[in-house]
Every structure is written in C-alpha cells, then in structure tokens.
Amino acid sequence: MRMMASSSSLLLQFLAPLLLPLLLISPSYAQSHRNISLGSLLTPLGRNTSWLSPSGEFAFGFHPLENSNLFLLAIWFEKTAEKAVVWCANRDKPMQYGSTAELTTDGQLLLKDHSGQEVWNATINNASYAAMLDTGNFVLVGADDSVNWQSFDTPTDTILPSQVLDPGTELQARLTATDYSSGRFKLSFQDGGNLVLYTAAVPSGNQSDTYWTSDVTVRNGSKLVFNESGSIYFTQKNGTIFNSTSATMEQMKDFYQRATLDFDGVFRHYVHPRNGTRKGSWNESWTPVYIQPPDICQAITAKTGGGACGYNSHCIFEGLYADCECPPSYSFFDPSRKYKGCKPDFAAQSCDADEKEIEALYEFQPMIGWDWPLSEYEQLYPIEEDQCRKECLSDCFCVAATYNDWNCTKMNAPLSNGKTGSSPKTKSLIKVPRSNTTQFPPPIPIGERKDKKSWTRTGWLLLGTSALINILLVAALLLFAFHSYKKRIHSLQPNSSGTGMGLRSLTYRELQEATNNFSEQLDYGGPGAAYKGYMLDDSSTRVAVKRIENLLPDAEGEFINIVKAIGQVSHKNLVRLLGFCDEGTERFLVYEFLSTGPLRSFLFGNVRLKWNQRIQVALGIARGLLYLHEECGSQIIHCAIQPRNILLDDNFVAKISNFEFGKLLRADQTRADIAVRGTAGYIAPEWFKNMGITAKVDVYSFGVMLLEIVCCRKNLEPAVENDEAAILTNWVNSCYRNRRLDMVVGGDEEAIFDLRRVERFVTVALWCVQEEPSLRPTMWKVAQMLDGAATVPVPPDPSSYISSIQ
Q: What is the pLDDT of residues 95-152, one digit of tens each?
C-alpha cells in the first residue's frame, strides 16, 4: 500500500466517493439517462424484456439462464459478446415464463413469479421514476430528485467503476459458472476497513475460515472505492488513501471493467475492449488483470472442510484458474458441481479381511506432489517406501499415504483439502483396486466331485514332493533376502540404547571412521563443532556429526533427555536426527547432512536468495517453530533462533538446527532458571529481567530474523553512519511508520513488485519484537498472518530494547 504520488490524482480519487452522491441527487445528472416511468412493466418474453442505459451498454431486466427456461432479474453488460451479469435480485429463486418486474404506480419496484406471488422488492415506496445509468447502477429516484434506492448499495458478486462500498458490505460468489445462486465464498468489507475473503457454507451462507485479507486497517469513516482508472482503494474522512489493488492501465476508458468474486473463490478484476476498439493483443473477451489470492488451492488452509475442491478431490491451479481432479479410481459426485468432491469407484477395504485377500484386491497408484494435509492421522519414521505401502495396506482405515525422505504419513477418508504439497518430492500413494484382481475359481458341482476324487488323490501325491522342494527353495531365498535387508538398514535401526525412538546408537570408533577422524568441519553454527561424515551403509549416507559440550553436571541424564526429545520430533522444517553416541565423556548427535549450508550465507554474503525463495524460507521457519512450540510431544523452546541456526537443503527448504540446546519446558514451568542464551540482537528483553522464559523468546528472535530475511542485512550494523539505521528493528519501524517500505528492500525489484507482502511480513515482524511478551503473537498466529489466513492489524510502536543494552 503506497500513497499516490500525484497530488491532483490523489485529490480526484479522494473526491470521487464524495462527489458521486452529489451527482446522483442533482436534478440534472452528469450523464444523461432515460427515465423509466411509473407503471412500466418487464416480462421474460416479448418486446419489453429489459431497460437499457442511455449508451445501451447496460441492461436491467430478465436475463435468461444458460441451458434452462429460467430467468434472473439482473443487470448485465449489453454490448459485449459475453453478457456478464453484474447484479441480480433473485439469484436463489430464478423466474419462469409469466413472471413480471414492475415499477408500480405507487413507486415500488416489484418482482412477481408466474403465479403473481411477490418474490422480491426494492424496499422503497414513493419513487417518482427509475433509471438505468451508464455506470451500471440502477436507481429509484424520489420527487426531490434524490436517489432513494440503488443497486450499487446491494451488490451480489461484482463491483463496477464509480461504485463506493461502506463497511459491512459483502459480495458472495455464485455457486458455479452457470449457477448464480449463493455460492461457497464471501468477500467482506469489514468495519475496520479491511477486505477479507471467507469460505461460506452452502446453502446457509454462514461464513467460516478466512483465506485472504488485504491487511489494511482504516478508520474514521472508511469507504472502498473502485475508480474509473482501474484502482480499488480505501479512503478516510481526512482524505488519506490506501491502495488495495492496482490494475491501472493506459487508456482505461477504452475498456469495460468489473471486479468479481468468482465461483472458485478468487477475486478478479476484468477488462474488456469496448466495441470498435482493440488494444494490441487484447482479445474480444473478459480478461483478468488482477487476481487475489494468486493460488486459491494453496490459500485455503482451514483446519476443517474439503478445501477448494471438496472431499477426495485435488485442486490444481494453472494459469489464471483453478481446476479439480479426482484421484485414480475416484469420480466426481456431480461433474457439473465439482466442489462436491469425489467418491471412490470401488468397495472400501474390509477390516475383517486377511492379509492375502487384501494384497489380492488392492494396490497403490503413486501421484507425485499430491497431498491432503487435513487427513493425516499417523506418521511413521524412519521407514522405507515398501514398508510404508505395507503399513497402509494392512490398515483398513488408511486410504492413502504420503512418502517423502523416510517419512510415511497415513491418511484416512475422506481425503480433505487436496492440493499440491509443499515439497515436490512428496509421493502420494493412493489405495486402489488391482487392475488384475485375482478371481477365485467357482465351486465344483457336487456331481463332479466323485469323478475327480481319484485324480485329486494322485495329483496330491505328485504335487506334494514338488511343493516341498519349492518351499525349501523359497525359505532359503527369503532368509537370504532378510539378512541383506537387515544389513542394508542396520545404520538406521534402533539397538538396546533404551531411547525407544528408532535412533541408531553409535560407538566413538564408528564415528571416527565415519568422519575420517573428524577431519572435515562444517559451518553449522551453534556451540559444539560439527563434522561431515558418511554412514557405513550401502548408500554411504552423508551425515553431520555434532559434538555436544557444556552439559549440566547431571550430564548423563540431560543428554538422554535431549536424545529422547529430539527423537520424537519429525517435521520437514527441522533437521532430522539419525543417531547418537554416548560413550564415556564423548557425546555426539548424528544429523542428516544439508549441503547448501546456513541461511546467513545467503542473506549477508555476495550470493543472496531471491525474494520468492526468502518468502518460502520465512514460512518454513515459522512452521518449524510452530511444531516445536505446539505440535510435538514436549514443547521445545529453541532459545537461539538466528540465521546461523537455519540450514538449507538442496531445494533451499529451511530447516531449523541446533534445537538440542533449547529448553524442554514443562506445562507448569516458566521460571527464568537457565542462563541467557542466544546472540546479541536476537535476545528477547525478558532474558535480562526477572521474568518467566516462555516460547515468546523464540517469537522475538524470529521477528528480528524475519526483518533480516526481508531486508538482507544484519540486525546490527555498527558501521552505518545513521545511529537509527544501525539497529535494523529501529530503522524498519521508522520506514514502516513513514510509509517508505520501498527503502527497506532497496533495489530488490521482485520485492518492490510484491510490496503488499513486504508490508505484511514487516508488520508481523514488528508484532513479534514487542518488548512486552504478552503483546507478541504465538507462532500459530504468526504462521496464520504470514500465510495471509489472518488479518494483521497495525502494531504498537515497539520500544527498541536493543539500543538500551548496547
């Protein structure tokens, strides 16, 4: 959001919402119109089916519905090939032949069905006449030439240039592309001046989960304005303007415009060349020039519901529009209403069937990248893919599983919120019927059994010897395969260490061999050196071996507690623990190896991550911290969140490391009974006060690091001439308050183009670095706000604790 540069443009945009009502109540409209006199009547058929605006560009009347004999009382673009409907009165009850729309002699606008029963009215009496304006607004005008009612005040799913909305106004999408009844998505202009997209229940219309917000808080009589230059923005009484969207183009007067909340939940700003004009490559059709959210499949992250496409379905966003697909051996309940989801085309697995019968009936169809995150109910780790298949196959509740990098996640029915997963390596295994399902032979008729008895006895004698030989051969092969399998996975199997977490206990000698006597040290940050090594397995798995130092006097107990706690965690944004060594005074943790290195190398060095990569890094760190704080078995407070403790894998996925030095916090434990941890600049103020240490210390550190990720500079830069600019939190806060966030990202063109997200991230960070811990959001709230699933209000002006302790 930026102040508009041109003062004249700003003045015009501010005056637009104020002048419009004056134009409407003026005895002579700024644009000509045709009065519709009292007693005028419209019918679905015949000569009087609609009333046109003076230019003939808009029509008010009975609009026929596609592939039916029903009609809407609606307003639409008359001169375009696709006569887009922009407003309708009876979206949930279309009319039949014989219906009427009448401006009665007592000044009422009434819609009656074919039986003469009133279906809708404009809730106004004593209008002197009506008019269909060239703005697309239908008005009822009183005796004093004031507008008593207008369609602009009761929008359905579309707004038009010159339309002004008051807080509390809502748009509701249609159900499908051709069904105009109330659909599954709403756009609400809240009292605080914020635009919010919700999912809505059908048919009740009750709104539930937010999946997009404009992140704007405007007060003092705010209004939402759609001006004729293509901008949609907020205004206040004091004249302040806040941009919400911007699709401004040159010669916008040569295009029709509309902004519609479409049936798929996406808010799109469309343009269409006017008759006789053709701008460059523009087609004679409605073309979206702005969409929000950019990917509806990923935007809907509600904890309940079927997602963008319904249960057992998968949402794919390609180009400008989303589509829904069914998994293999599934089909849509209703192909014309894909949002209802998919149903399996085969019988569900019986929980009473034996193992052989199940293997004969079902197999798995792999789908790369598909995921249903709301259907997960059990995670298995570490495990190979074949074993993952067996675990799901033997579980009658498991209809699919995802497998990625030794992680197996089982999912039950119905599959919910289907979308492309965050990792392209994720493989979904869909349980489907075998294409060559074994058919058991039919029973032998009783009359034939005696004739075959003698053959059967002889056959069994002949087959017996052969079967015995075959059994012995198969047993030998299985025994050989079993020993090979055990040897292959030995490096990741638990031994008698007593941790019970499936981690390998290694000897000090084994680690010496694996690391070539600790010869290659890694830049992994944190206390204790880390070394590169190779496991003694068939694939020579690369690992990072970390030495654990400076434990408490009760070192043995503390180290085992660390191993048990870390052994329980499993998240894609946490570095994975593979094994440990606890021999005498030597203690090591063996982690997966991440070749790309620490995040700090890609923020403050010569090679920097692109803006889109930094976005994903920030989101990944937030999700990893959320897992440590709220989703793993025992809450873990990291206590040292900073770029050196964030490692990147080959795909630049962020993984939190060094959380073994964090604090394992019991539910009733908040005392500051541990020494100050962390690095200057990232340390929360409560470390230096007589206050309880809670998960909010990580929130503070994350806020500082989030600003570093946005700005690509360290939180402390003593060499900077300006004292305020030397401390990143102070400088960014000043830029934020002065609306100069373009300075924060410098010459980063990608970030400048995405300045709305920059502002959201900065606003979240400023909430995180509040000196008072109770003002900081939880990591769950932080993740919601960063994803755009929750509103981000303006934060209080934070005090700079850093400056007071330097």
A: 998 899 999 998 899 999 988 999 999 977 789 999 999 999 999 999 888 999 999 9
**554: pLDDT strictly greater than 70:** no
Q: Are strands 504-505 and 577-583 parallel, antiparallel or unpaired?
A: parallel
Return the CATH fold of 504-592.
Phosphorylase Kinase; domain 1 (3.30.200)
* Mean pLDDT score, 782-797: 86
CATH topology (fold) of 1-23+155-308: Agglutinin, subunit A (2.90.10)
DSSP sequence for 335-384: TT-GGG-EEESSPPPPTT--HHHHHHHEEEEEEETEE-GGGEEEEE-S--
pLDDT given at position 209: 79
pLDDT at 576 over 80: yes
| CA distances to 41, 350, 361, 394, 482 from 355, in Å | 73, 11, 10, 7, 20
Q: What residue ranges do the domains of the chain occupy? A: 1-23+155-308, 31-154, 324-433, 504-592, 599-805
How many residues are recorded in the chain? Answer: 806
What pLDDT score does 720 carry? Answer: 60
CATH number of 324-433: 3.50.4.10
For residue 280, give both structure tokens: 């460059």
Average pLDDT, the chain: 79
Q: How confident is the model at residue 180 (pLDDT cuts 50, 70, 90)?
A: very high
How are strands ordered across the β-sheet holding 504-505?
504-505, 577-583, 586-592, 542-547, 530-534, 521-522
Structure tokens at 232: 């949609």
Q: Quick check: do 1-23+155-308 and 31-154 share a fold?
A: yes
- Alpha carbon distance 343, 326 (integer Å): 8
Give the contacts of 548 (CB within 8 A, at least 6 positions apart).
Answer: 528, 559, 562, 587, 588, 589, 660
**If 0-12 CB within 10 Å is exposed, 13-18 middle and 19+ buried, where does residue 725 land?**
middle
Q: Provide the residue type at 479 as one letter.
A: L
The CATH number corresponding to 31-154 among 3.40.50.720, 2.90.10.10, 3.30.457.10, 3.40.50.1000 equals 2.90.10.10
Instruction: Evaluate whether the domain defined by 599-805 bears CATH number 3.40.50.10170.
Output: no
Model confidence pLDDT, tens digit, residues 13-70: 333 333 333 333 333 333 445 789 999 999 998 888 999 999 999 999 999 998 788 9
Is the predicted pLDDT of residue 272 greater than 50, yes or no? yes
H or E element, residue 21: helix 7-25
Query: Global pTM?
Result: 0.53
As beta bridge partners, residue 637 has: 663
Express each pLDDT in 229-240 by its tens digit: 888 888 876 655
Please state, in angstroms and rounded to a whole number, the distance separating the CA atoms of residues 85 and 221: 30
**pLDDT-based confidence at residue 798 (cuts at 50, 70, 90):** low
Residues 6+ apart with CB under 8 A from 318: none
Please provide the distance, in angstroms rounded to a whole number, between the alpha carbons at the two ends of the chain: 34
Q: Where are the beta strands (DSSP E) in 535-575?
A: 542-547
**What angle, rounded to 10 degrees, do the helices at 779-787 and 755-768 form?**
170
DSSP state of 631: I
